[in-house]
Amino acid sequence: MKFKSVITGASVVAISALALAGCGSSSSSSSSSSSKKSSSSSSSAKTTKVAKLTAGSKMKAGTYNLEEENYSHGYRTKMSITVNNNGKITKSNYDQVNKNGKSKTDDTSYNKQMKKIAGTNPKTYMPKLNKTLTGSAATGNVGSIDVVTGATESSKTFQNYTQQLVQAAQAGNKSTIKIDNGAKMKDGTYKLNEKNYSHGYKVTFAITVKDNKITKSEYNQVNKNGKSKVDDAAYNKQMKKVAKTNPKTYQPALNKSLVKSSDPTKVDVVTGATESSNTFIMYAEQLQNAAQKGDTNTITVDNMIFSE
């Protein structure tokens, strides 16, 4: 959630509206509200209005690629985005392919079975996810991408990989991103820091890995003086009143959940802190990918800030 740390002279109605805009729903589904980073939801809005970028580098023109190195249940992910001269994504190709290069969308028996169990299938959710990147997320607004009901894990993977491709596009780095999916995490400490402040705060995140387990998780939101949002008494009091949670509560809960599972996809979204939860999960997956490679270089995210 992102609203100003000090709120004065505002009515309860105004504060409530602000909280709803910032937090969204706690449900991990396509019906969840989009975060304040987005001016419209990719799954529920009738328009595809693109929020204006106010901070963070614009993506450079070109085609950017990412691919998994290992197969899981016979498939691996391949993804690419194409960015135009205006810094907007004009094409997204997210797919899961087998060793013969055949897409999971063409696996008739798989699609039929998954549709029966989950209510969706690759033939439905893959095009839907790709479409978000030429709509509400065209400028790299990953926060506007909703989880598709029935395809939570694939949606989270899509968000993670999109974020990594956006980061590559911001830097103009066209080298294919290799994901050593399924590999054991190597011992070490892995760090990620946001570059830009939103409402006075930015994310810092570190995980410590030992024997393929995450033994320590340090996700935080800090201001320019290095002070944690957890210690912002006024902010915590106001958010608790409106959203029934606050950084002092949800940040330790998210860190604890990641250590318990060592799997970002098993971290639950905290009710009242949807945006922060989704950011946590996405960045945790990126750190996990770094740990699978054993790459201890600090990841600097030139995080995009969008108009509200």
From TrEMBL:
Q: Which residues lie in Low complexity bias regions?
A: 25-44
Determine if Signal is one of this entry's keywords. Answer: yes
**UniProt xrefs under Pfam families:** FMN_bind (PF04205)
One Gene Ontology cellular component term attached to this UniProt record is: membrane
Going by the UniProt record, its keywords in alphabetical order are: Signal
Positions of the region Disordered? 25-52
Single annotated GO MF = FMN binding
Q: Which residues form the FMN-binding domain?
A: 74-169, 200-291
Does the record's keyword annotation contain Signal?
yes
Span of the signal peptide: 1-21
Q: What is this protein called?
A: FMN-binding protein
Species this protein is from? Lactiplantibacillus paraplantarum
Give the lineage. Bacteria, Bacillati, Bacillota, Bacilli, Lactobacillales
